[in-house]
Amino acid sequence: MKDKKYFIAVKILFYGILIINLLLIFISVNRSSMAVLISSQFTFIVFICIAWVLIKRVFSVFFTNLFVMMDKMMNREGVPNFDHIDGTYMSQIYHQLNRLYDVLQMQQSSIEQEKSKVQSFVSDISHQLKTPLTNLHLLQEALKQSGISPEEYQDCLEKQGKQLDKIDFLIRALLKTSQLENGLIQIQPREASISQTILSALEGILVPAEKKEIEVYYDNSTDYTVLHDPKWTSEALFNVMENAIKYTPQNGKLNILLSRTEKYVKISIKDTGIGIPPADLSNIFIRFWRGNTNILEGNGIGLYLCKQIITLQHGYILVNSIVNTGSEFEIYIPL
Fold this sequence. Notes:
- The strands form 2 sheets. Strands 2-4-5-7-6 form a 5-stranded mixed β-sheet. A two-stranded antiparallel ribbon has the order 1-3.
- The longest helix has 56 residues, at 89-144.
- Helix 5 (194-203) crosses helix 7.
- It contains 8 helices and 7 strands; from the N terminus they run H-H-H-H-E-H-H-E-E-H-E-E-H-E-E.
- It is 61% helix and 13% strand.
- By secondary structure, it is α+β, with helices and mostly antiparallel strands.
- The chain folds into 3 domains: 2-80; 117-181, Helix Hairpins (Orthogonal Bundle), CATH 1.10.287; 190-334, 2-Layer Sandwich (Heat Shock Protein 90).
C-alpha cells in the first residue's frame, strides 16, 4: 500500500502548504511586506520540489509493479496479488490487470483443451485408418491367389467395399474437422426449396439405410421456399439422419416430416433407435463428445457441426428421446 501512503502524504502536504501560502500572501498584501511575500513564494517552491519527489516515487513503484505483472503474464506465471483494491487510479489499474490475466488464463486453458481434443481426434482417426488399409492389402493379396472360387471372390469384393466405406467415413470426418478448425463454414443464404434440401440430405443415407433394411419415409408433397443455405443446411440434416441410421437397429424406421409454424419451418427427423439417456441430452452437441455407446463409428463432430450451421442461420434444434424407443430431432429454420 505504499502508493496510497505517498498519495495521502502529498495531499496533506499540498493542502497544508497551500493554506500557509495563502495566509502568507494575505498577510503580505495587508502589511505590504515583501519579506512575507518572498517567504510565501519560497514555501510554494519547496512544496513543488517535495511533491515532485513524492509523485516520482509513487510512479516509480507503480511502473515497477506494472512491469513485473506484465512479465509474469507473458511468461504464463502467476500474477502477484498486490491487494490494491482502493480508490486510487493505480489500484484500479492493478485490479483490472489481475482480471485481464485471469480472463487470458481461462482462454488459454480453453484453447489448450481444444487443441488437445483435436490432436487426440486426429491421432484416433489416423489409428483407425490403419485397420481398413491393412485389411484391403490382405484382401488384395487373397484376390491374387489362383484357384479362388467365384463365391470367395465375391466375398472378398464385398469385404473390400466395407473397408472402403470405413475409409470414406474417416476421411469425411477429417474434412469436417478441417472445415471447423479453419472457419470454412460460410453461410450464404438464398431463397430456395427446403424440400429439395431435405431430399439432397436423404440421398446420402439411402444406401446405408438399405443395408440395414431401415424403412425411410418422407412425404415431399409439402414444400416451402425458405431463406437458407441449401448446401450447409443439407449437411446439417445429413448429419442428423446419418446418426439416426447409425443408432437404429436392423429393420428400424426413419420418418422425416416437414411442417411450419408462424415464424419457422420445422423439420422433424424421428427414428426407432437406441435412444439417448436423459443425462446425455445436454452433451450431444458438444464437440468430440461421443457418449457411452458400443458403436465405434461416431466421431463427435456431426451434431456439433449441425448445431453450428443451424445457429448461424438463426434457427435452433430441439431433441426428444426415450431410451430403447427412439429419438426425434426437431430443426427450426426461420421463414
